[in-house]
Design a protein that fits this description.
Blueprint (H helix, E strand, L loop, with lengths): L1 H27 L9 E12 L3 E12 L5 E12 L2 E8 L3 E3 L3 E12 H14 L3 E16 L2 E13 L5 E6 L2 H6 L3 E10 L5 E12 L2 E8 L3 E4 L3 E11 L1 H14 L4 E12 L8 E9 H13 L1
Parallel strand pairs: 1-16
Antiparallel strand pairs: 1-2, 2-6, 3-4, 3-5, 3-7, 7-8, 9-10, 10-14, 11-12, 11-13, 11-15, 12-14, 15-16
Length: 302
């Protein structure tokens, strides 16, 4: 009987010690040990599109739940799309995030289209209109917080798969070059695989052929509408100088359809999607006249 009392005393003492420990942890534990800054990421604006790259602004929201501010010295970040690295960059300007506050940061960035081309093609073949984006950031602090001078932040998002317009020169009339016609019309093939239409406002274009710079210049006032999920031909009217055409005709006699050309297109994009609205497009399309014949035949077979 006496031994049972001793056992119950021991059990009671253990329970009291456990309750005392829990109370102490609640009262004196670090109140911010479980808090951690977090980020939200989105594509704010596409600023410029060329044949090789896309300049855009990433919109980043940094949430700081800590009772102390963050003095950020630099900000290294990367973006993976469906597991494929498409961007690695650094934001070198220091900034601060106040205690228990949020701060919006706009990061100017550049996507190289070569990095995106294969992944976009694979997704297009699957019929996908969205992708898994993983944003990782290494935040270097000028003043340590919770004993750390760097923070590793990760954010995963499912977002639309934005595709850049694919534009090719598709057709021309070689006889008009030889005859010195003052009006040349090129046809371009524009492929828009986005789920929303895109419009080109007041496109301006210049054509170089061989050694002849600015053989033709043209302007198409108003809006050129490119429907969603479309692959269509559009006509570009050029005005040319007779003397320049005669010089080009001489090169045609010597080089024939091996003669190279360069088409420059400048325009402002409009769209119901705010990411593309107001984006500048500056495309440079290089090729040879014989390449246009091949493309023309392939279009005719479709």
């Amino acid at each position: 009987m006496k031994s049972n009392k001793i056992i119950w005393w021991i059990v009671g003492l253990v329970v009291i010690l456990i309750l005392a420990f829990v109370y102490y942890k609640k009262k004196y534990a670090n109140p911010i040990s479980g808090l951690k800054p977090r980020i939200e990421m989105g594509i704010g604006k596409i600023n410029n599109i060329t044949g090789k790259s896309v300049d855009l602004t990433l919109r980043l929201m940094i949430h700081n739940p800590l009772p102390v501010g963050l003095d950020v010295e630099k900000f290294d970040f990367s973006i993976h799309m469906n597991g494929v690295a498409v961007l690695e960059d650094r934001y070198g300007k220091g900034f601060k995030v106040l205690p228990r506050d949020s701060s919006m940061l706009e990061l100017p960035s550049r996507f190289n289209l070569g990095d995106l081309a294969q992944e976009s093609k694979d997704q297009a073949e699957k019929g996908a209109d969205s992708a898994d984006y993983r944003f990782e950031a290494i935040v270097t602090l000028s003043k340590p917080v919770l004993g750390k001078d760097t923070l590793h932040l990760v954010r995963n998002n499912r977002m639309p798969l934005y595709r850049v317009l694919q534009i090719k020169v598709a057709d021309y009339d070689i006889e008009k070059f030889r005859l010195g016609d003052s009006d040349i019309r090129l046809k371009i093939q524009i492929n828009n695989q986005n789920v929303f239409p895109v419009q080109l406002r007041d496109p301006y274009f210049v054509l170089d052929v061989g050694d002849q710079k600015r053989l033709g210049e043209g302007h198409k006032p108003g809006l050129t509408v490119i429907p969603a999920k479309s692959d269509s031909l559009y006509e570009l009217p050029f005005e040319v100088n007779l003397g320049k055409i005669l010089k080009t005709a001489g090169q045609l006699i010597g080089q024939g359809k091996d003669l190279p050309f360069t088409l420059y297109i400048k325009s402002t994009m409009e769209s119901e999607n705010e990411v593309f609205m107001g984006s500048k497009m500056n495309l440079i399309i290089d090729g040879k006249l014989k390449d246009l014949d091949k493309l023309k035949r392939s279009i005719g077979e479709e």
